[in-house]
Amino acid sequence: MRPHIQRLRPYVPGKPITEVKRELGLPNDFDIDKLASNENVLGPSAAAVEAIKNAAAAVWLYPDDTCYDLKNALADFWKLTPENFILGNGSDEIIHFLMLALLDSQDEIVSAQPSFVQYESAARLAGCTCKLVPLTEDGRHDLPAMAAEITERTKMVFIANPNNPSGTVVGKAEFDQFIKSIPQYVLVVLDQAYYEYVETEDSPEGIDYVRDGYNVILLHTFSKAYALAGLRVGYGLANADLIKALNQVRGPFNVSSVAQAAAIASLGDSDQLTRTTELNNAGKKYFYAQLDEMGITYIPTEANFIMLDSGLPAKEVFQELLRHGVIVRTGDPFGLPTWLRVTIGTSAMNERFIKALRVIRERA
Fold first, then answer.
1. Which CATH architecture has domain 11-43+271-363?
2. What sign has the CA pseudo-torsion 15, 19, 20, 24?
3. Alpha carbon 257 to chain centroid distance?
4. How large is the greatest C-alpha to C-alpha distance in the chain, in angstroms?
5. Phi and psi (nearest 5°) for 57?
6. What is the DSSP letter of 333?
7. How many of the other CB atoms lie within 10 Å of CB of 320?
8. Integer Rg of the chain from CA
9. Pick from 279, 297, 358: nearest CA to 324
10. How far apart are CA 235 and CA 88, in angstroms?
11. How many CB atoms sit inside 10 A of residue 192's CB?
């Protein structure tokens, strides 16, 4: 095995419900709420489900490798051209394309710490240097510090907006200053996986920078707000030349025909997004009120999850929560040993988590 591959840390997903039931010896009908992977608890659009059913009969055929219909639907949605889009098996695959097409061992990337682990993994897979810049005390990207790390070897800067796991966003003015101040040879990867959940108006509209010709690529996904995580479809938006380069390393038929059909249907269902964001906004308010009442520190979020400091060893809290039928994500992989990341669910899910957390803290 190549040395830099040995240093890779495999991605650890949130625990599946079936695995928890096996580990704890729970019956199949035992109710468990999964609040670990930032999935949309409302589930997919009814239009998407119908599209999935209609597409199922043709799965004996290979999918459209060009994703013609989906690219055109995205072009209409964003007011760009189909040549501005590349589709992936989740937006994670677009990150992989960036690594394959652009990174050599002598290159560097800059990312925040903690942030989405796949950025660092891409750098390690390419055998290049990854400079990790700590978040600010309030959990935000430190853009001046990230800019200071850029050298002539820097190829890419990754900015998750909102950030995972902190749920924070960078402001319009600070991002504008950042992207105008860095060298043009540096590609800014603006990961907007949770874009649809943002409430604040002080967040940059990444699409404006694509239209204005900046060296930037936006990452989007249908896994979160559109609730198609099980189908794995994401996309990148950038100038046509960069998209052409990424297509050079894209494998054939990487997005299934079922996923393409569901994504097109989801894109056309604005009511589903409205229901999703309304539920999320109400859930945030509930969490804030309950956590304030318990005196628990948390980071106000612009995503569909919240980071909170349980005040106890996160791994122990995690195990206790499993016994209450709730799966969350611990903060120790992010260097936050007492913190939890919790997906914002339905009102019943949120209440169940808060009730369980109260019991655990009272017993501690």
1. Alpha-Beta Complex (3.90)
2. negative
3. 23
4. 59
5. -65, -20
6. G
7. 18
8. 21
9. 358
10. 6
11. 24
- Contact status, residue 59 vs residue 258, Cβ threshold 8 Å: yes
Q: How many residues make up the chain in this entry?
A: 364
- Residue 168 has φ and ψ, to the nearest 5°, of -95, 165
Identify the DSSP state of 39. -
Residue listed under structure tokens 């990312």: 111
Distance CA 97, CA 242 (A): 11
Q: Count of alpha carbons within 13 Å of 191, Cβ hemisphere only?
A: 29
Does the domain at 46-268 match CATH 3.40.1440.60? Answer given as: no
* pLDDT tens track, the chain, 364 positions: 777 676 666 666 677 777 777 777 777 777 889 999 999 999 999 999 999 999 999 999 999 999 999 999 999 999 999 999 999 999 999 999 999 999 999 999 999 999 999 999 999 999 999 999 999 999 999 999 999 999 999 999 999 999 999 999 999 999 999 999 999 999 999 999 999 999 999 999 999 999 999 999 999 999 999 999 999 999 999 999 999 999 999 999 999 999 999 999 999 999 999 999 999 999 999 999 999 999 999 999 999 999 999 999 999 999 999 999 999 999 998 889 999 999 999 999 999 999 999 999 999 7
Asked if omega into 114 is within 30° of 0 (cis), the reply is yes
Find how far residue 54's CA is from the centre of its chain: 28
Ranges of each domain in the chain: 11-43+271-363, 46-268
Give, in degrees to the nearest 5, the angle at Cα 290 between 285 and 292. 95
First to last CA, the chain: 45
Angle at 283 between CA 278 and CA 287, to 5 degrees: 155
User: Which tokens sit at 187?
Assistant: 């590609």
Q: What is the pTM of this model?
A: 0.93
